[in-house]
Design brief:
Layout lengths: L1 E4 L14 H9 L3 E5 L10 H6 L3 E3 L2 H4 L5 E6 L3 H4 L7 E5 L10 H5 L3 E4 L14 H20 L7 E3 L2 E3 L3 E5 L3 H12 L3 E5 L5 H7 L3 E3 L18 H15 L4 E4 L14 H6 L5 E4 L16 E4 L2 E4 L9 H19 E2 L2 E2 L6 H6 E4 L2 E2 L2 H8 L6
Parallel strand pairs: 1-2, 2-3, 4-5, 5-6, 9-10, 9-12, 10-11, 12-13, 13-15
Antiparallel strand pairs: 6-18, 7-8, 14-15, 16-17, 18-19
Helix pairs in contact: 1-11, 6-7, 6-11
The structure holds nicotinamide-adenine-dinucleotide.
Length: about 375
């Protein structure tokens, strides 16, 4: 199997899809891995590191693209890249299929196979390939650091000769992978933490990290695959009221609430922001999907009455070495699923491949994506 890794083209993207450690394993398993020169430089991997791992490095993209059987990437490659791949080539990347379904057109037109890393089932067998969890872990961690860097106060309680400083109070909204990592990180730094989710099962995880679980009585919005379902306006209203009360006591709020394929739920209203103290901060990790905070704007810093609101859309890229390492291990596990005895072998009877392969042989394979594309509002 010929695996090709390119330098990512998005301006804020400095991660790389495969690091030398994984190249070594893939080559040992009988694959050939070619890497575009400079692809890993900003993620701590030089061209020499790739060569030492058994990869072939080339500065000539035109030469690399037509030979790829598999092109793992962090983000969806540009249409001009897709047009140069051979028929049947597999692109495995974060393709945002539910958010940007119209961008799948190039895969259909060029007869490519598209694997959406977001659609890998959240099952025990697929855990080693779970890019979403890897990246959410990093985002949750970094969100807390972003807050600590910008808050005018410290997180831990300190008892000093000059008196005692109370611990910071952190509210984490959405206790999935990113939220739980944010809770754990804030706790490690000594903050007093509260966590909120509409899935009742999240309560145990929140409490196990030493945080208090905030919940709405008799609400459990657990849907398919462990994800949350969209809830009605009555539940959302109760959630906003509860969070407005909690916001008044918080020095920092980290929001991570998402429902796959939907606009992120609006949970922190302007009124809640106005209830917060001056000098407090919000880090909204749902910014790319509309935001959990009414006032957040993607990749901008808003100052509302002295409350700073951040909505960074690509925090994993700010920790490129570890983000690339985890991504690369996930993608390597996926490559092992795609090959049998060193040759490409797509087994659609496999639930993992069946779940994440969204375009194959000129067809959109995923029913939900087909429905979105065929709906009158779609741009396709
Ligand atoms: P996600 O990014 O889709 O959402 C983040 C969190 O937001 C979720 O916990 C969700 O319940 C919460 N949320 C949604 N709407 C909300 C609202 N209105 N108010 C408050 N919170 C709201 O989720 P994720 O982090 O990707 O995790 C989804 C699920 O998958 C979790 O149950 C997680 O434990 C599970 N998971 C399982 C595996 C596995 O078994 N291999 C791996 C990773 C995650």
């Amino acid at each position: 199997m010929q695996i090709v890794v390119l330098k990512e083209s998005a301006t804020d993207e400095i991660r790389v899809a495969l690091v030398p450690e994984s190249v070594k394993k893939l080559v040992a398993a009988g694959n050939e891995v070619s890497v575009e020169a400079g692809a890993g430089l900003l993620a701590g991997a030089s061209d020499a590191d790739y060569e030492q791992a058994g990869g072939k490095v080339s500065a000539n993209r035109e030469e690399l693209l037509p030979k790829a059987d598999v092109l793992p990437a962090i983000n969806r490659p540009a249409d001009e890249v897709l047009a140069k791949l051979k028929t049947g080539a597999i692109v495995a990347a974060l393709l945002r299929p539910l958010d940007e379904p119209e961008k799948l057109r190039a895969f259909v037109e060029n007869n490519l196979t598209a694997i959406s890393l977001e659609m890998i089932p959240r099952t025990t067998r697929a855990q080693a390939m779970d890019v979403l969890s890897s990246m959410a872990t990093i985002a949750g961690y970094k969100a807390v650091l972003l807050a600590t860097e910008n808050l005018p106060r410290m997180f831990p309680m300190l008892t000093t000769a000059a008196g005692t400083i109370p611990p910071a109070r952190v509210l984490v909204v959405g206790a999935g992978v990113a939220g739980l990592q944010a809770i754990a990180t804030a706790r490690r730094l000594g903050a007093v933490v509260e966590g909120f989710d509409i899935r009742a099962a999240a309560g145990e995880a929140v409490r196990s990290l030493g945080a208090k679980f905030l919940e709405i009585e008799n609400v459990n919005a657990e849907g398919e695959g462990g994800y949350a379902k969209e809830v009605g306006e009555d539940v959302m209203e109760k959630a906003r009221e509860l969070l407005t009360r909690a916001a008044a006591n918080a020095d920092c709020i980290i929001t991570t609430a998402q429902v796959p394929g939907r606009r992120a739920p609006l949970l922190i209203t302007t009124q809640a922001v106005e209830a917060m103290k001056r000098g407090s901060a919000i880090v909204d990790l749902a910014g790319a999907n509309g935001g959990n905070c009414e006032l957040s704007a993607p990749n901008e810093t808003i100052n509302h009455n002295g409350v700073l609101i951040y909505a960074p859309t690509n925090l994993p890229a700010t920790i490129p070495v570890h983000a690339s390492q985890l991504f690369s291990r996930n993608v390597t596990a996926l490559c092992n699923l795609l090959a049998k005895d060193g040759a490409l072998n797509l087994d659609f009877a496999d639930d993992i491949l069946n779940g994440c392969c969204i375009v194959h042989a000129g067809e959109i394979r995923n029913e939900r994506i087909r429905e979105i594309i065929q709906s009158p509002k779609s741009k396709v």
